[in-house]
Amino acid sequence: MNQSTPRQFRDHTTVRVGGPAGEWILAEDESTAREVLQKHHLPTAAERAAGKDSLLVLGGGSNLVVNDKGFPGTVLQLAFTGISAEPATNTDDDAVTVTMAAGHNWDQAVAWTVERGLTGLEALSGIPGAAGATPVQNVGAYGAEVSQTLLDIRAWDRAEDELVELSNAELEFGYRDSLLKRETINGSPRYVVLSVRFRLTHRAGQALSAPVRYAELARSLGLDPAAQEEQRRAPLAEVRQKVLQLRAGKGMVLDAEDHDTWSTGSFFTNPILPASSLPELPEGAPLFPAGTSAEGEPLVKLSAAWLIDRAGCQKGFGAELTDGRASLSTKHTLAVTNRGQATAADLMTVARAAQQKVQERFNVTLHPEPVLVGCNL
Ligand SMILES: Cc1cc2nc3c(=O)[nH]c(=O)nc-3n(C[C@H](O)[C@H](O)[C@H](O)COP(=O)(O)OP(=O)(O)OC[C@H]3O[C@@H](n4cnc5c(N)ncnc54)[C@H](O)[C@@H]3O)c2cc1C
User: Which domain of life does the protein's organism represent (predicted)?
Assistant: First the structure.
């Protein structure tokens, strides 16, 4: 266990804001993490909502904004790593089970699978953070989501003080959502993921990707986005490279030299609305089918980036509100970025202004994607 004097969130989050923590524990092995968790039983929902939970679980800090005063409780940073693969039992010959420790860097894990010719995670290349956090918001990009290949997780249940295994179905995944996220308040989860298992595929011969689902990615690989599934596969390594290239062009791959990447990635989720209550949108507005509601009504997903842009908040918006310390990315309207000296309050100022403009122009409420601790819109 490694305890030390106050560390600042600004040094441990990708958006580089946030004050100190009362106590900071870096768990470099699972038993250290479990020791700490045993001492931090889950308070009641009311106590947690009132900010009385004294534990914040941290992975790579890439989906987290902590306020400038910091967090008075204990930060448990999960830093234990490890990855292994074994042939899956009781299933097709070409199925492989890959196990990742919670603190394993996600993009390194994806690279590891691609190098070994394992199909399934390649479109999720370049996403920052740790493997253990990926099921929390059902991480997704370029038509893929972890829920498509995740088998199960091992987690510590702070309500029951026991180790549990939760299957893909039990995690009740949705768009940027899961049981894990719904049971997390202010960065304090009921279930702390210790390891994740994915079911990937290893085919003899050339290692090909899963069918590419995202039109922009398909076209950049020379594939026809409208072709049959089997015609939408490309060599794994090529898909990874192309995804990294497309992401870098949007400031979505971490680069210390590029302030457009000092962010939490997308700041807002794409709104999903019942088809019957869609606002009046200009012709050409991107709309995507998004399944049906519990009542059986068709749902439609809108593009938050498009709404923000058309509400009058173009790339770079918000610099004028914060003396240049924070703004929307100059490459993508969905990222709220730190231009070097931003505070958490500056980020909230920019995000709030974009949210209000979209509300006024389209009557659509945007919801933040990152976890906000001690700050709100
Ligand atoms: C440049 C950039 C690009 C991004 N692109 C994408 C993208 O394409 N798609 C996408 O979905 N996301 C994207 N993100 C968001 C982010 O990278 C992911 O959500 C990532 O999974 C967060 O991992 P983390 O380890 O950094 O989590 P953290 O920020 O450390 O934590 C986030 C939340 O998860 C909880 N948590 C973390 N680890 C665990 C655990 N082991 N058990 C239980 N709870 C835990 C924390 O308590 C917190 O509530 C991007 C972020 C950045 C900065």
Answer: Bacteria
Mutate to test the pocket of ligand 1, among 17, 40, 127 (most ligand atoms within 8 A of CB): 127
Q: Annotated catalytic residue: which of 266, 310, 325, 327?
A: 266
- The domains of the chain, with CATH numbers, are 2-78 (3.30.43.10), 83-248 (3.30.465.10), 259-373 (3.90.78.10)
Q: Cα separation of 110 and 113, whole Å? A: 5
Residues with CB under 6 A from ligand 1: 14, 57-64, 78, 102, 127-130, 132-134, 136-137, 139-141, 180, 184, 187, 189, 192-193, 252, 254, 261, 263-265, 371
What separation, in Å, do the N-terminal and C-terminal C-alpha atoms of the chain show? 36
**pLDDT tier, 91 (very low <50, low <70, confident <90, very high otherwise):** low
Among the options 10, 176, 197, 233, which is catalytic? 176
Tell which wins on pLDDT, 164 or 205.
Answer: 164
> Is there a catalytic annotation at residue 147?
no
Q: How far is CA 264 from CA 127, 259, 350, 368, in A?
A: 10, 12, 14, 10
